[in-house]
Amino acid sequence: MKVLLIGSGGREHALAWKLAQSPLMTEFYAAPGNPGIAEHATLVAVNTEDNDAVVSFCKENAIDFVVVGPEAPLVAGLSDALRAAGFAVFGPSAAAAQLEGSKGFTKDICARYDIPTGAYQRFNNAPKAKAYIRQQGAPIVVKADGLAAGKGVTVAMTIDEALAAVDDCFEGAFGAAGAEVVVEAYLDGEEASFFCLCDGKHVLPLATAQDHKRVGEGDTGPNTGGMGAYSPAPVMTPEMVERTMKEIIEPTMRGMAESGYPFSGVFFAGLMITAKGPELIEYNVRFGDPECQVLVMRLKSDLLPILYATATGTLDQVSAEWTDDPALTVVMASKGYPGSYDKNTPIGHVPEAGEGAKVFHAGTALKDGALVATGGRVLNVTATGKTVGEAQARAYALLDKVDWDNGFCRRDIGWQAIKREKA
Ligand code: AMP
Ligand code: GLY
User: Fold this and answer.
1) Are 326 and 231 in contact (CB under 8 A)?
2) Does the predicted TM-score (pTM) go above 0.85?
3) Which of 15, 212, 289 has most ligand 2 atoms within 8 Å of its beta carbon, as the pocket-test mutant?
4) What is the average pLDDT score of the chain?
5) Which of 158, 222, 288, 423 is at a distance of 20 to 30 A from 68, taking alpha carbons?
């Protein structure tokens, strides 16, 4: 099979590493890719923001299957353009991607299908949003409706903080994403991410993971794209998984199909496990980054036929086998991230990883043959172990061999699971 992978992050390096192991793979291309992905695929200079350019590349190179990693091209309709041209593509249509692209859309599906989630209202002007906040009281959560690179959410502990967040949204802090605001009840509990595939009709649950969104140790400081993750998430007991499937995932996928937007691709539910059980925080219509890095480490099955079955409506004919061993990844980021940071800082050494360990590249590039850091999140040092504690120790031992002066990481990835292991 001739495959094109779209994307250039740590998630796409993880997908590339796993897909390249498939005996079905005959030719493997990636656009735009990164130096890690280049270990597994031929990088091609196709503008991935130009749907027509991607379609032309696929025609010229007789591509059999396109795997789309990030959300931006999905929301921009890349899957639709490729499907219209007759290509098999892993990734939802732009209409189905609204599940991530519009929080209001998702909330309305929850209301229609009785899916447990925080009570909410949608607003298109500040005075009404503020009146609702004053009436509800704090803590309360204010969200820009559209895609805001993970920064559009304010978990406000006071009414004043919530009112300020409303002003930020309507004054354009998140651009067009903030033209509409969702105000939502605060949910208290432990978070987990639940990953599934859907081919429009059938759902295949994959695995669970826990992200670390805050930049600082002890989950402090500003939100980021994710500073580390581990899988599985121990809070997702078999009972919670069953309830999540029945109460949240299955009605959502039924709702998408019945609304005329059947979902095809991978998605994950961001869940809050509250005293009442699982409640939905949000959906994402792609693999999480860095959650994908730990999922691929645990997947024993060949990933390529599973993604192809998702794209071609035959998901009921495949299964996914996982090792019970946990996997953990630590993100190394440029000093200053998620604020401003220096670019093109030299990375002297990335260690070779052995069995059950791997360093994935995110924001790296080659400059005159030398590896440099070009992004905020740069390397994902990943390892498995018999326990989360062992996976953590192996990941940090590997990370300490990375030679990159301008890099930093959190030293406590996995702390919640390790606390449970010690209890
Ligand atoms: P989101 O972009 O919707 O995933 O929100 C980012 C983060 O804000 C989530 O991972 C949660 O930690 C937090 N959050 C979002 N909604 C709520 C809520 N209703 N209650 C408590 N925390 C929330
Ligand atoms: N790590 C969170 C995300 O990919 O959305």
Assistant:
1) yes
2) yes
3) 289
4) 95
5) 222
